[in-house]
Amino acid sequence: MPVDPDACVLPDATLCAFTVLDDMLVALAQGPTQWKMQLFEHPCLGEDPQPGGQIGEVELSTYTPEIGIPGKPTAPHFLPVLCCLSLPGSRAPHGHPQACGGFTLEEALFGLLFGADATLLESPVILCGLPDGQLCCVALRALVTSRSAPGDPKALVRILHHLEEPVVFIGALKTEPQTEEAVESELSSMEVHSDCLVALGHHGRTLAIKASFDKSGNLVPELQEYFLPGPVLCAACGAGGRIYHSTPSDLRVVDLAQGSVPLDPQQPNRAPGSLPPTLCPTSLSVCSVLTVSVSPRAPAGETELLALSAKGRLMSCSLSPKSPGPTRMTSASADRKIKELLSGIGDVSERVSFLKKAVDQRNKALTSLNEAMNVSCALLSSREGPRPISCTTTTSWSHLPLQDVLTATCLLQNSGDFSLDRGWTLCIQVLTSSSALDLDAAGSAVTYTIPVDRLGPGSQREVTLPLGPTESGVLDLPVTVSCALFYSLREVVGGALAPSDPLEDPFLEEHALDLLPEQEGICLPLSRLTVDMLRCLRFPGLASPHTQAPCLLSPACNPVDTFLEACCGPSSEPTGPASLRAKYLPPSVASIKVSAELLRTALEDAHSGVPLCSATLQWLLAENAAVDIVKARALSSVQGVAPNGTDIHLILREVAVTDLCPAGPIQAVEIQVESSSLADMCRAHHAIVGRMQAMVREQAAQSSSPPDLRMQYLRQIHANHEALLREVQALRDRLCTEDEASSCATAQRLLQVYKQLRSPSLVLL
Asked: Where is coiled-coil annotated (predicted)?
């Protein structure tokens, strides 16, 4: 049935509870840090449904707001409970407090609980049960009179008790037996004068308050706490001093009426009219009841309960009247009682196993989080020194039947006192550069994830990955290999936050995953390695005479081509694009000149007593597997093979650079790269320039001053390079518009200009 928006009486998003009292509407709203009780005039029939106006307001106790999404109010897991209590005869002639969740207390108990002021004013009292366990009371007439001159909230709000758990029900009932005249009087006035106030907490703690006499004959409040099976979902007070309360597994009833529990001979001092020391719940064999209410229209001597189940079913339960006095238990009832007890024991055992499993999961999650925090702090605080967990990457060539493959081996070592268990993953990202023949192409990245399972102190894990060439025979260099550790919060913490039994706390089921952060884990970088052409070069000509050099297979080696070449014999002319380029086209050349003084300063510690050209070549090939042979033979030039099979020649010689320094020639080392493949020559030249840039930055940090230079000569060289760059742009634009015959001459001129740019007249100082 749709509800018209005009029927809204109090549009307030912070409203959590309300109750109606005669001509007043009492509402409880949730503030940023405090609960706020507001009093409004109740609208009359036929008028505007909006409340007439606020006639009182008071702030209750403070609370700690829950952590939620910034900028959005967080709804409480447990809503507060409101209950109206009044004196006999103080209500309106036709006001029925039980119809709106209110009760009438006897004058003695009312005065003991709320004081003489509320009793003299004959003021109804609103009793509020808060989610933190507090029981607060506010006298409504005192709240109305404080409207014109608001005073201290402490004078208006009184805290009766603290249950130390969320309050789910507040009610009142009659426990003492009544005479026939008293029963007829209550039936005529439709008021039950309750002599006991009860409050139930979510976990089963129950408070009962009654007026009684002490040893001196003074009227004092008697407080008795009980512990019922929980968690309590709802409750209701019925006739005869009975309290009906629901748990996820059963609907039970307890009896607080006088004489329901026989007097204990071991407690002779207990007064006959006092509260029973213990309560014995009786099962009604109804489970999963979310809301229960006692119907006021039940026939005399009977009780009818209206219950709403967790599946949305509205049920009516009729209970037979209790037989007067104890009866002798028969064998059938004993069997039924034993079955109920065994069933209850089974339910408790199953609940205990659920709780134990949940506790074990959360303990493991907390242990894993503690280890993750220790690992993160250790890695982030030791960036310069030795790290407790390291990952070293090395490269090597593997010989396969059809082609040679470049592989990367990542060695994960745990040198610390920590253990990497569930939730840790080693992530290896292989990032290839764009192709040298297609400058607009973007590089591709492949990420490998390897679960790290039980890597204890002193253990290591080795992973080997292929870097290339691909099936098309292409290996785009340089290739960057990055290693990192990833810790998954969702894998470790997600299962521990989920409730083991949704009925035990239905609110956690909705908010469990909201407690996780937006990030799914923690990423800790370990290492980063760039694999360039100098690292990938192979030198079959440097193999020892006593050692047979392995045959280098082309990446795109076709078995048919290999068979045909073998049939032609060794005297046949070489075939293939690479061989034709090497035979008929001049090699592509690039060079770079480096000051001899700069090289001696940078290499004096590791290569003392070695010729400068040989020491420089050893430094360039320090990450190559053939560096030991180059060092043993003191070579200054070497010829290697690129991954695609083309030759690359590295030549180092000492030269003198004139016309640059007025004091005389500058001694330098010229590093020359030759190859029949323009792309491979560019890759090797790029690798050399990268190493030289790192050397220059390192020496510049040591404040070494360069010699005096001829600025006019430098300006002239700069102007020449600017002219060459402009010519390159013009030639590239011309290639887009010329036909095939004219473009050949343009392409040849473009290659000549590129050659001049790759061999500048400058020197690195």
From this structure: none
